[in-house]
């Protein structure tokens, strides 16, 4: 539970600072609603949803022709910390490190990946990276920071979805999971003129119910096999030092392969990401290159 809350506050830290607000001054939900979202709300999306502006952190469920929820297995919903009550049959990655044959968990070349942007901190990372890499973005951050999203694209990086607002998906209803994914895709359609192919679940929280929904969107699930726990750089308890992280990187360098989980939502994790990049060098791959597949399901330009 502690981990869950910590990541949630790290995620939105960039946003709060930008808005001139203090993290402790208010509940995050109320503040997110006040955001002046920058990506224009497209007309086609108004026709489709009857809405005229981007939603807050609880996006509404809009039924889609190609999503059939009767085909989704009926499995128990669970919250962070409830793993002991979960059957191993659900194949939960966050509880049991269980993976499906279609999940991508590694790469034949040691490669970094970055979650939770686009955020103001992302820009410093973009300036330093000398190779193409993969970013898993939040829809709500995409419509808040479309300029940064475009900078990621201009530099040739691959972008996948990380949901609309970073919910713990196994705790949500099927409809709420669909809403988290469809709105993240629409944010990417409107901002980057493409339909994503790769999806990474927040907190790595995924079981066969979430997988069944994600697959109906045509998305490929991407997890990781090497975790920096870089978010622990900004927590007071369970603290992890930069030296500890860099020692792990040196060990992984010896193996030469693997998929590294990092975060570009906060300045501190980006500082360390840049050092990791200097250590590993530019001989890295994007997720699409790791598995020899295309970058996006579709491009609209
Ligand atoms: Zn995340």
TrEMBL record:
Gene field: CDA1
Protein name (Swiss-Prot/TrEMBL): chitin deacetylase
Gene Ontology cellular component terms for the protein in this record: prospore membrane
Molecular-function GO terms, alphabetical: chitin binding; chitin deacetylase activity; metal ion binding
InterPro entries: Glyco_hydro/deAcase_b/a-brl (IPR011330), NODB_dom (IPR002509), Polysacc_deacetylase_ArnD (IPR050248)
Keyword field contains Transmembrane helix: no
Family statement drawn from the similarity comment of this UniProt entry: Belongs to the polysaccharide deacetylase family.
Top-level EC class: hydrolase
Lineage start: Eukaryota, Fungi, Dikarya, Ascomycota, Saccharomycotina
Single GO BP term: chitin catabolic process
Organism of derivation: Saccharomyces cerevisiae (strain YJM789)
Leader peptide range in chain numbering: none
